[in-house]
Design goal:
Order of helices and strands: HEHHEEHHHHHHHHHHHHHHEEEEHHEEEE
Strand content: 5-15%
Helix content: 40-55%
Oligomer: single chain
Strand order of the largest sheet: 1-2-3-7-4
Pfam families: p450
Cofactor: heme
Radius of gyration: 22 Å
Structural class: alpha+beta
InterPro entries: Cyt_P450, Cyt_P450_CS, Cyt_P450_E_grp-I, Cyt_P450_E_grp-I_CYP2D-like, Cyt_P450_sf, Cytochrome_P450_fam2
Bound molecules: protoporphyrin IX containing FE
Shape: globular
Keywords: Heme, Iron, Membrane, Metal-binding, Monooxygenase, Oxidoreductase
Subcellular location: Membrane
């Protein structure tokens, strides 16, 4: 799937056969992008899927090798599918790669009764362990203090914020799942937090990230198209399966240790609570627990940390926006205490900046693919049961009918004339409907508390003579290329 995202975001044709839904006449102009755009602002104007929607309408089909997918575009049509027909568009496709990795278990690739029960359990357990409450707020604030200290140790010199941000965010989800945080220089923790695999250091999240980056490679497309043949062949696709085996071994060991010290009457965290849950039909067993924790770690770390990296980049680029955030922090929080979620309603500008960063950074551009669970019609077209659906979130977050200046960074998208925060229905970075991001509330707490804590104490700027670059890469998320940043004390 990422291959498709990567190639489409890069503006390449990737050998797709295009089909239109019946009755739609394309206009004369050629919708294909002319170049590989590297400027982020230009990029958003040239997204091939958005252009294809202009040519073929808000619903069209693509043939991806042997599979067919229907792309749904624009706020109104995506909402009609994901929200108004929520139960029909709530399935997931299990590709041969995931079939081999987790056999459709876990939270994000599962279906039917098992998915519903696992999701319900995960959401209530996240709440029980503090999501949306003061308990988790204090965990995040404690982590913000550690992050600030680590950044201050850089003494204003240029550094790459990726590892520190990943480590801090991974600590939050880790405290919910395993009941513990790790020091940033803890090798155990390095296993969880590193994003790029240093040569010869096969750590766990390193392995995950490394494997995710492999999802960009064409050989995985081949594996999905010809699994029986590819299973027999040597090649880099085997690295993915080897790496996942090691990650699963690490998580299994964590789960095993928990079982040994388990006190049923006093659940310490997600893993302990899972042991108490008994529903064999929904597969509440140790194997599934392993895949659920893996999903939560992957989905709960890379996404939020990538958004924070984009936020720092936009602050470097738009110094006047950063100054206005500083002013609001001074007025509402001051320097004597840490931020709190209770401050958010009093900080409309900061809230709007965070929302606008999420909108324009568009980190999950094509959403996760969905599958129809029964026959339906959408926008007048018949869509049979079992059809793959691409709900194109880019077309929602940049929908010309919903946003005043869709292609520029503009916090006023979320402010009214008197400077009050306004919610926008088309703000869908977490998607919508029954499979809407399960960690939305946690991500929102993380983003507000980390962002305000950092800007309360620090000013971010580019190293001398360096212009912030919005070049990106597409892996699990659409993320900035590695960059250097300077942070000075306010
Ligand atoms: C800025 C941060 C985040 C963004 C932008 C984001 C975005 C998304 C999106 C677009 C989806 C696909 C929804 C769909 O299929 O329609 C998703 C699913 C998911 N997210 Fe997030 N996410 C974020 C943070 C998190 C966090 C912190 C967690 C963990 C607690 C998490 C856990 C999940 C899970 C488990 C799923 C699969 C849900 C399912 O299939 O039922 N996400 N997320």
């Amino acid at each position: 799937w990422s291959i498709l995202g990567y190639e489409l975001m890069r503006g390449q044709e990737c050998g797709l056969l295009l089909g239109t839904c019946p009755g739609h006449q394309p206009p004369d102009r050629d919708p294909r992008p002319q170049t590989n755009q590297r400027d982020r602002f230009k990029l958003t104007l040239s997204l091939p899927l958005v252009q294809l929607a202009e040519r073929y309408g808000n619903i069209f089909s693509l043939r991806l090798g042997r599979d067919k997918a229907v792309v749904v575009n624009g706020f109104k049509m995506v909402k009609e599918a994901l929200v108004n027909q929520g139960d029909i568009f709530a399935g997931r496709t299990l590709t041969p790669v995931f079939e081999r990795i987790n056999r459709g278990q876990g939270l994000s690739m599962s279906n039917g009764y098992m998915w519903k029960q696992q999701r319900r359990f995960a959401m209530s357990t996240l709440r029980n362990f503090g999501v949306g409450k003061k308990t988790l707020e204090s965990t995040i604030l404690e982590e913000s203090r550690c992050l600030l200290e680590a950044i201050m140790e850089k003494k204003g010199l240029p550094f790459d914020p990726h590892l520190l941000l990943n480590s801090a965010i991974a600590n939050i989800i880790s405290s919910v799942i395993f009941g513990q945080r790790f020091e940033y220089n803890d090798t155990q923790f390095q296993k969880l937090a590193l994003s790029h695999p240093p040569q010869g250091r096969p750590y766990t999240l390193t392995l995950i990230s490394f494997s995710l980056s492999l999802f960009l490679q064409r050989f995985l497309q081949l594996y999905n198209a010809f699994p029986t043949v590819m299973k027999q062949l040597p090649g880099r696709h085997n690295d993915i399966f080897r790496n996942y085996k090691k990650v699963v071994a690490f998580l299994t060991q964590q789960i095993q240790t928990h079982r040994e010290n388990w006190e049923p009457s006093e659940p310490r965290d997600y893993v302990d609570s899972y042991f108490r849950h008994n529903d064999p039909e929904a597969q509440f067993d140790d194997e599934n627990l392993c895949y659920c924790t893996l999903d939560l770690i992957i989905a709960g770390t890379e996404t939020t940390s990538t958004t924070l990296r984009w936020a720092l980049l936009y602050m470097m680029k738009h110094q006047q926006v950063q100054e206005k955030v500083h002013e609001e922090i001074n007025r509402v929080i001051g320097q004597a205490r840490q931020p709190s979620m209770d401050d958010r309603p009093n900080m409309p500008y900061t809230d709007a900046v965070i929302h606008e960063v999420q909108r324009i950074s568009n980190i999950v551009p094509l959403n996760l693919p969905r599958l129809t669970t029964r026959d339906t019609t959408l926008g007048g077209y018949f869509i049979p049961e079992g059809t793959q659906i691409i709900p194109n979130l880019t077309s929602v977050l940049f929908d010309k009918n919903e946003w005043e200046t869709p292609d520029s960074f503009n916090p006023h998208h979320f402010l009214d004339a008197s400077g009050e925060f306004v919610r926008k229905e088309a703000f869908m970075p977490f998607s919508a409907g029954q499979r809407i991001c399960l960690g939305e509330n946690l991500a929102k707490m993380d983003l507000f508390l980390f962002f305000t804590s950092l800007l309360q104490k620090l000013t971010f700027h580019s190293p001398a003579g360096v212009e912030p670059s919005f070049d990106f890469q597409v892996g699990l998320t659409l993320s900035p290329l590695p960059f250097q940043i300077c942070a000075s004390m306010r």
